[in-house]
Amino acid sequence: MTIGLFPLNLVVFPHTRIPLHIFEPRYKALLQECLERGLNFGINLVEDGHMHSVGCAVKIVDVTQRYPDGRMDVVVEGIERFRLLELKNNEHPFAVGEVEILHDEEVPMDSALLQTCLDSYNTIVGLVYGASGPVLALDELGPRPSFEMAPKSGLSLEQKQELLEAPSEQARLELIHSHLQDLLPMIQRAEAVQRVVQSDGYIRAIP
User: What residues have CB less than 8 Å from 38, skipping those under 6 apart?
Assistant: First the structure.
């Protein structure tokens, strides 16, 4: 299949929504065509002039603002991962690529690992955002919970791309688990420092 491409310095995951401000003429043309024809487009991570081949197809779910000069603010939602096979010659001002959809390998998901990841994730969310933080419940998760945890897990761009390219949900959970196990102690230490400041030198035990 062919799809219009919007290379950006970010990684989009399936089922994740992000806002975009569209201002370049070629991408205004891309978004306008997608809106008029009900098409999706692809977002690939670009770093130092290099575009990664694995990206995420997205759909426009809302146009929040239109400007007189054609700029627009939109919200897009990730649909599915794809691999860019080749760029196609075309008459459009934006890039068009031939892509293949990437499907997960059928590897069993370790439910104990999922629970461990979820516990660590919710602990971090509680430390960072407080009691009103966006915690996740096991019974509310979709079939690919790694993509639900990833946006607020403090991943670097490199880690996000690695997660997007991972071949199975089990592989993604292993990456999330390794990252959260490194991140949680650092956040707890930062929380401890803050408690020292707040208590004028007296620190309470971290539960």
Answer: none
